Amino acid sequence: MDLLLIAVLAVVLGLGAFVTLRVRGQGKKAPLALAREPTLGTLKPDDVVIHFERDYVVASVELFDEHGQRWTHCHLQGGESAELLRVEPGDELQAVMLRRCAELPFSEPPPEQLQRGDERFGLTHWGKAKVQRSGSDEALCCRQFRYESAMQKVLLVLVWEGAQREFWCGEVVPVGSLEFLPGA
């Protein structure tokens, strides 16, 4: 009888120790499994982008697809400032920080050059892309025209369905100047 009691007690204590270690082990692994580290190529709404010590929240993401060539626009909100982070493919991802700028004389077919202030921009790419906006199942069409200046500045003209135009001005930024944090 005493031997049976000792055996039952050993089994109960052994199971208790096993369950305790198993729960503790899962507790340590769970945060790693849930953690998501955003990168330039995986930004989602509510993620945080830090550029030169300025924090921006990703308000929305647009995925562009032009015959299999893809790039992303992340609309950033930082206080009263709204910017656009354009993520372009290539041998390595390239980041372009843009701000809305005043409308310029623009017609289609696109002019080979545009003048903005003292700077002249030359057309480097244009095309028509299907666009998927975060939170929407509807695909939109957008004609986009990318211009660059000799000073490595970028001028982007987006013409949406219904002829709504957006003008964005900015520059290519080193990817290393950007930091990313997961959203809430």
Distance between the termini: 59 Å
Query: Radius of gyration over alpha carbons?
Result: 26 Å
Shape: globular
Helix content: 10-25%
Summarize the helix and strand pattern as letters.
HEEEEEEEEEEE
| Uncertain stretches of 5 or more adjacent residues | 3-33
How many DSSP-defined strands? Answer: 11
Question: Which percent range describes the beta-strand content?
Answer: over 45%
Instruction: Tell me the structural class.
Output: alpha+beta
Instruction: Please give the largest β-sheet.
Output: 8 strands, antiparallel, barrel
- Tally the helices: what do you get? 1
Spatial order of the strands forming the largest sheet:
2-3-4-5-10-9-8-7
Mean pLDDT score: 84
SSE order and pairing:
Layout: H1 2-34, E1 48-51, E2 54-66, E3 69-78, E4 81-88, E5 94-100, E6 113-116, E7 119-133, E8 139-149, E9 153-160, E10 165-173, E11 178-181
Antiparallel strand pairs: 1-2, 1-11, 2-3, 2-7, 3-4, 4-5, 5-10, 6-7, 7-8, 8-9, 9-10
Provide keyphrases for this structure.
184 residues, alpha+beta, 51% strand
Q: Could you characterize the architecture of this molecule?
A:
The chain is 18% helix and 51% strand. The protein has 184 residues and is α+β, with helices and mostly antiparallel strands. The longest helix is centred in the first third of the chain and has 33 residues, at 2-34. It starts with a helix and ends with a strand. The model is unreliable at 3-33 (pLDDT under 50).
